[in-house]
Amino acid sequence: MLHPKKVGTLPVKGSEEAKQTNEIGMFIALVDAINIEGKDITADALLTQRKLAEYRVGRGAHYHFTVKGNQPTLHADIALLFDGRGTPDYRDVTPPDHGRIETRRIGCSPELNAYLDFPHVGQVYLIEREVFHKKSQKLTLETALGVTSRPPAQTDARRLLTMCDVRSQISLSCPFIKVT
User: Fold this and answer.
1) Is the separation of the CB atoms in 141 and 129 below 8 Å?
2) Rounded to whole angstroms, how far apart are CA atoms 141 and 160?
3) Higher pLDDT, 125 or 19
4) What is the value of pTM for the model shown?
């Protein structure tokens, strides 16, 4: 089993010692330093943790998590919901720049909210990225699943695609989170 590498140190309460920790352990310490109330925090699958979802919502923020194999039951439940689903809720085609044409589609649903064992679920989503590389004439398809605390009444499919697309998760200080 792979373990995240140690990336930082945190003080031990009531002691002058420090303990090493990974990205998960550093997240709260990093975000404690900023005001996140009313913000949307997008994170990759490593930070898709129940404790971190509770923390964000407890501080008045919303989360958007990518869901992968580190949350196998959550991943399977969302995948099953979207399996064989037809028309996406929103579709975006980028201009043919940089030698490629990219089509992004998102499907969203609040249908699993009461069923999922994950805190503060507003809806789940599936994002598909289809990229046609003009030079090689190759077509690639990527699929990403996710969960957000924002319900459909607060975030439509178009906005959710913009906020949650994994390719847009860029931060100068921390490459696996984005605060908007």
Assistant:
1) yes
2) 19
3) 125
4) 0.77
